Amino acid sequence: MATLSVAAKTPHPKFGGKFDSYVALPPSGKGPGLLLIQEIFGVNKVMRDLADGYAKQGYVVACPDIFWRQEPGIQITDQTDAEWARAFELFKGFDFALGAEDLIVTLAALRAHPACTGKAGTVGYCLGGHLTYKMACLSDSDASVAYYGVGIEGALDIAGGISKPLMLHVAEKDGFVPPDAQKTIAAALGKNPQVTIHSYAGQDHAFARVGGKHYDKASADLANGRTSEFFKKHLG
Q1: Which of 37, 78, 91, 133 has its CA 20 to 30 A from that of 98?
Q2: In 3D, which of 189, 174, 35, 47 has the Cα closest to residue 112?
Q3: What are the catalytic residues?
Q4: From CA 124, how far away is CA 163, in angstroms rounded?
């Protein structure tokens, strides 16, 4: 398994000053960079499979361990109550400011990777969708796609930083993003020409997670197709 070791801007007193990212390379060996941001379950098989899938599309993909400051190497699933409980513990203990800082340095390290041709974008799911939105606001990500990002309505004070293309995939029936939150997000971001928002009627949170409780192939295929075309346009 290929990894990328990244030096943290702010070291951790227990776990040190470096953290790892899972890396997947395209068949050609070179391509634009893509920072893939995990859900609340760590860099598990779902995320590694996503990384491998994006690599097959031609991207140099790095999926960082954003929970490393709590417990490096977390890999759990959405299949048991105990794992869900642990995932929510990690989510509640997550430092969003340090997490964004870690992602920004990872994006810089990805751009410097010998296989990366220069441009680099960001894609994230759930918690990673929220952080993808923040990367669009705070970093030099060339293009960003957020799948059912949670809590974006609470971070709209930084929306003025969006100057490059951002796409949001929103689940209409998302149990973690109620209708009022969706309306607030749409009202705040809808007038920015760099922002595209797609809503998926009748879909719940994580409709694109293969094997998940709310997986819907038709909606996932539609969202993934839109993502593919978006990145081809802006990173190709």
Answers
A1: 78
A2: 35
A3: 174, 205
A4: 18
3-235: CATH class:
alpha beta
Q: What is the mean pLDDT of the chain?
A: 97
The tokens 């995320």 sit on which residue? 47
pTM: 0.98
Q: What is the pLDDT of residues 82-139, one digit of tens each?
A: 999 999 999 999 999 999 999 999 999 999 999 999 899 999 999 999 999 999 999 9
Handedness of CA 56, 24, 50, 106 (dihedral sign): negative
DSSP per position, 196-207: EEEEETT--TTT
Asked if residues 122 and 132 have their Cβ atoms less than 8 Å apart, the reply is yes
Distance from C-alpha of 98 to C-alpha of 35, rounded to nearest angstrom: 17
